[in-house]
Design brief:
Length: 657
């Protein structure tokens, strides 16, 4: 197929697309034909590297794979998951991580979308991952836009993740195997993917540039410190060590400045003296100030100093942290009675050096609660070290937790690393998702807890550590012990007391929580939900709990231009809830899924002789949730003598019985 034929074919397929998209896909098709020698109609087997090679690539990706673990799963919860999957690749387009519905895994695997698969343009032709790597921007490759006809059933939307030096180090991709997806349906997905890729870029930036001064810049003073800042990492000599994509555009507009003097017309010492003059030794960031640009114009900025430089810059003792008295009652802002009671119990227990084990669904706020308990019981000035055991690759978790000596292994820090447990000395260590900790590491952790000493990898010397311990898990650790996945002796060591956090759907303070979150997101502008939207939020099941609520409200705030969040402003996945609330009861009753859930609930109640607590325990929900379900379906018990056989009466037009 000639290059002109390829161009003509793709132009015909993209009559409704934008000009930039046409250019990107046309150029990609030409590369596939001219440079890679691919044939449009050829069926190719996917190239999949071995599991050991995939693990090596994950290890070489450094902190990328660790930080992206939660990002991939949070993004997945934000999209319409029917037929979609989320993938993370390295800089070569090799898939390192993915999440999809279990029922959809065979479809994605059949299309070559699985861990270890290589999705470069050279290998798979025009596709979301490979073309995104070349273009360096968010892109959608929709069905026939794929160069190879065998991929014509896919719709792939991808966005690049840049490292601080401006190189694409990863791609975040959302792919679908649904036939009903139109190109215009991909606009929201592309926006989401780009936002999450930007968020991951910022995480990596702060991780890799932690030893430098960070300059935050924004054209609006009220938005400095937000996710839309341009970020620059500045070395002690004033040269730029790293930047985010927004900052690179700013540098380009200033003639490609690579030194702070060229960009701002001042040296780093002068900038720090001016911007940090009103700060305190406890401040991580300076106050927001106007920052004149060397090429003309003004932006607003803050400085973030690394810990070591903060100690050097400020005069010791001028602004010392005042410890919070431990006998003073301090409440969390949450108004749910169960949550407040857990907080008060947790503070007393941790102050008494009792290990805490938190349980609760993903996103229910376990780390938020742990940090609040630490601040009150131990002191906000003391270290709080949080580690997600599920997010750390098995090959890295040991050195991450216990540290390592210089030269302990290939890639080890030249001066060694003390480890996260050592960082928690004098404060609190929070181990999230501890049920996912490898069984071999559990033994080492148990020894640390018993001996209160930690021995870094490659060292024969142990160092004393003193910390309070809070662990969290969203899995049944007792069941994990029974299966041999968790050490029983470690379970008894960490389970000094158990705090079971309620799911968001079981909390009584949803309205207050929504108001507080909106006050944070709105940045001084009043925003609230109308009554209909608030009712939809109350009825939603919230599988992602508070984390999902945060994402929903942030999304809605973007569209609530008049300060009122209405049902139409909610994400697409909640529109089904809107539709169901707008339907009459008779219409709902005709829905097979609605009927099936109602019938199952009636059967469960009858089986337990209408004992609500027993039924709720069997179903794995709270009594409040069960009562709401009964109200939703119009189920009530007529009377003790009227329901000997467990027959339910459904009120409303349900045609149930």
């Amino acid at each position: 197929m000639s290059g002109s034929h390829a161009g003509g074919r793709i132009e015909a397929a993209l009559q409704l697309s934008g000009v930039a998209q046409n250019r990107a896909v046309l150029e990609s098709w030409q590369r596939c034909h001219d440079q890679f020698g691919l044939v449009h109609e050829t069926a190719r087997r996917p190239e999949i590297i071995s599991e050991s090679q995939t693990r090596q690539r994950r290890d070489r990706s450094g902190r990328l794979f660790h930080h992206a673990h939660d990002t991939v799963r949070t993004l997945y919860r934000q999209i319409d998951t029917a037929g979609y999957a989320v993938f993370l690749t390295d800089h070569d387009g090799v898939i390192l991580d993915s999440v999809a519905a279990q029922s959809m895994l065979p479809s994605f695997r059949a299309n070559g979308l699985l861990a270890g698969a290589v999705w470069s343009e050279e290998r798979e032709g025009t596709n979301g991952i490979g073309t995104c790597l070349v273009e360096g921007r968010a892109i959608t490759i929709h069905k026939d836009e794929h160069f190879l006809t065998q991929h014509a059933g896919l719709t792939c939307t991808a966005a690049p993740v840049f490292d601080p030096e401006g190189r694409v180090c990863s791609v975040l991709d959302v792919s679908a195997v649904r036939n009903d997806i139109r190109r215009e349906d991909c606009l929201r997905v592309r926006s989401l993917v780009a936002d999450y890729a930007d968020a991951l870029e910022r995480i990596l930036f702060f991780e890799e540039c932690a030893g430098n001064v960070i300059l935050h810049l924004h054209p609006d003073a009220s938005h400095v410190g937000s996710a839309r800042d341009a970020l620059l990492a500045i070395r002690p000599d004033g040269s730029v060590a790293g930047s985010t994509a927004l900052a690179r555009r700013l540098l380009s507009a200033q003639g490609g400045a690579s030194h702070i003097t060229s960009l701002l017309g001042t040296d780093l010492d002068s900038l720090m003296s001016r911007m940090l003059a009103t700060g305190t030794g406890n401040d991580k960031n300076s106050t927001t100030q106007a920052v004149p640009l060397g090429g003309g114009g003004v932006m607003f900025g803050q400085l973030t100093l690394p810990e070591k430089q903060r100690r050097q810059f400020y005069t010791p003792g001028i602004a010392s942290v005042v410890p919070k008295p431990h006998d003073q009652d301090v409440d969390i802002p949450d108004q749910d009675p169960a949550l407040r009671r857990l907080f008060q119990m947790g503070c007393k227990l941790l102050a008494g050096e009792i290990n805490l084990l938190m349980s609760g669904e993903t996103g229910s706020g376990k780390e938020h609660m742990a940090r609040a308990i630490h601040n009150q019981a131990v002191g906000a000035q003391k270290p709080f070290v949080a580690i997600n055991c599920a997010a750390l690759p098995e090959s890295l978790i040991e050195s991450e937790l216990f540290g390592h000596a210089s030269g302990a292994f290939t890639g080890a820090a030249r001066d060694g690393f003390g480890g996260r447990i050592k960082q928690a000395d004098g404060g609190t260590l929070f181990l999230d998702e501890i049920g996912d900790m490898p069984i071999g590491i559990q033994g080492r952790l148990l020894r640390v807890l018993e001996q209160r000493r930690v021995e870094p990898l490659g060292s024969t010397k142990s160092v004393p550590v003193d910390f309070r311990l809070i662990c969290a898990s969203n899995v049944d650790l007792a069941a994990a012990v029974a299966k041999g996945n968790f050490r029983e002796d470690l379970l008894y060591r960490i389970k000094g007391a158990r705090l079971a956090l309620p799911a968001l759907r079981d909390r009584a303070d949803l309205k207050d929580l929504v108001a507080r979150l909106l006050a944070d997101f709105a940045k001084g502008q009043p925003v609230h939900c109308d009554d209909a939207t608030m009712e939809i939020l109350r009825q939603h099941h919230w599988p992602g709990n508070v984390r999902e609520l945060v994402n929903v409200l942030q999304y809605a705030c973007v569209f609530a231009e008049d300060g009122i969040i209405r049902a139409a402003h909610l994400p697409d996945e909640m529109q089904l809830v809107v539709t169901m609330h707008q339907q009459p009861a008779s219409t709902c009753a005709q829905n097979p899924l609605w009927q099936a859930e109602r019938d199952a609930l009636q059967t469960a109640l009858a089986r337990h002789h209408w004992h609500v607590s027993k039924t709720a325990r069997m179903l794995g929900v709270s009594r409040n949730t069960l009562y709401r379900k009964m109200e939703k379906f119009g189920i009530r018990r007529v009377g003790k003598n009227d329901t000997d056989t467990g027959v339910a009466v459904c009120t409303g037009d349900t045609s149930a019985n």
